[in-house]
Amino acid sequence: MGENKMGIMPMPKLMLTMSLPAILSMMVQALYNIVDSMFVSRIGEEALTAVSLAFPIQIIIIACFLGIGTGVNSLISRKIGEKDLDSAVSAAEHGFILSGILYLIIVIVGIFFSDHFFSMFTEDVKILNYGTDYIRIIMFFSFGRLFAQSAMSTLQGTGEMVQPMIAQLIGAILNIILDPILIFGLLGFPAMGVRGAAIATVTAQIISMIYIMTQLFRRNTYIKVNLKKFKYSSSITKQIVVVGLPVAIMQGLASLMISGLNLVLAGFDETAVAVMGVYFRLQSLVFMPIFGLAQGTMPIIGYNFGARNKNRLINALKIGIGAAFILTTIGMLLFQLLPVKLLSLFNSSLEMTEIGVVAFRIISLGFPMAAVSIMLSISFQGMGDSYISLIVSFTRQIIVLLPAAYIFGRFGGLNSVWFGFLFSEVVALIMVVYFFKEAYRTKLLPWDDDVRQAI
Questions:
Q1: Where do the H-state alpha helices sit in 233-269?
Q2: What's this model's pTM, rounded to 2 decimal places?
Q3: Residue 364 belongs to what domain range?
Q4: Hey, which end of the chain has fewer CB within 10 Å, N or C?
């Protein structure tokens, strides 16, 4: 089928063509998250708090499809780099089967445990009802997001980034359109409040899934997926899980981290919980483009790792780190200079604004450090060593951030809680730089010796 562009295209152009579609789609996703919360905040602070409390469960769902997607993406790109197209196809097919299994698990959890989750954080009946209604709809119809991610990751692993971008844009834009219609009852629809926000989300996800599945199975793609010929392979499953499970756990740790922070903050004021929910949605506008950049960079690293091309791998990583650092520095300046404006988008009360301004300015100081950590972590995933990213993520979020936030808050009050974020980013950056140096020494430098021996 000819040489894949990930092995021959000039690196700056390749990085642009691979990452820009993902960055654009991620930015629209971030915009959706913000607009969604803006509409919900108009219902009342209880609704915003309920959706903020539901966010950790949504992160777990995201962890499921990102884990499978990353494992499939990484394996496909590496197998294409090794010229093993049959294994690349098998990886894609296994991704869909694993997604189906995960969907069944999510539904069972939604039925039996969702109401108990919210009762851990509040006794407010209104918040409990809002939260349970919202998250059950999200979980019962999560198949749209799961199968869409499998299809998008398959295409991304081959170097095709435009169609996944279009699919994500369709989902995000449709969600933004449906939100006010279903929440407030426009165009003849009944006003459904928080429940309407959830229905808008899953409807958009299902339509996005239909689009990307059509593109994968009907277009002339680099690899041909045919689920009718699926043959289970424990080896393929293991290779997907080895890379994907650490990524899923990393994302799941974010859920545990946010839940832990919500418990710490609820000890001060429930308004602080709402501030945390608003922060995570606003910071997505900064970090979603970084994740898009990482999404475009990982297949390049995976392909060139499989092809044993160290120079192209390192060049891609350098460009990615530089771009991520610049983007997050701009984001940090926005959070430093415009915190009141950002909070006012969510109909913030005076108390919410006072808490949020301090939080935004302290936490955002760590954005540039986080950018470097994210891009170096992506290199481990591309090379098939996701467990290293997991170690760093677990240390940052659970070992460092939660205890630090609790201790700082206990001795310095609510405003000191936010320094836990900054402290954890410093620790994570030191760790990830150390691990990358070791990976470079043990995995990449030996290739130079192989070349010299061949000569």
A1: 234-266
A2: 0.68
A3: 5-449
A4: C
Task: Report residue 42 CA to chain centroid gap.
Answer: 26
Q: To the nearest 5 percent, what fractions of the chain are helix, strand and coil?
A: 85, 0, 15
Token digits of residue 417? 């809680």
**Cα gap 53→57, rounded to integer Å:** 8
Contact 11, 297 (CB under 8 A): no
Q: How many residues does the chain have?
A: 455
| Measured distance CA(77)–CA(303) in Å, rounded | 5
Position 454 in a domain? no
| pLDDT tens sequence for the chain (455 residues) | 456 677 778 888 888 888 887 788 777 777 777 777 788 888 887 888 888 778 777 777 878 877 888 888 888 888 887 788 888 888 888 888 888 998 998 888 887 777 777 787 777 888 888 888 888 898 899 999 889 988 988 888 887 878 888 898 898 889 889 999 999 999 889 999 889 989 998 999 999 999 999 988 877 667 777 777 788 888 888 888 888 887 787 777 777 888 888 888 888 877 888 888 888 888 888 888 898 888 788 888 888 887 888 888 899 999 999 999 999 999 999 999 999 999 988 878 888 899 999 999 999 999 999 999 999 988 887 787 778 888 888 899 889 999 999 999 999 999 999 999 999 999 999 999 999 999 888 888 776 655 444 44
Residue 121 lies in a domain: yes
> Taking CA 167 as the corner, what is the angle to CA 74 and CA 240, rounded to the nearest 5 degrees?
20
Decide if 146 contacts 65 (C-beta within 8 A).
yes
Cα dihedral sign for 148, 154, 156, 162? Answer: negative
- Report DSSP state, residue 189: P
Looking at the 3D structure of the chain, how many domains does it have? 1
CA angle 300–301–303, rounded 5-degree value: 65
Q: Looking at the domain assignment, is residue 199 inside a domain? A: yes
Q: Is residue 295 part of a domain?
A: yes
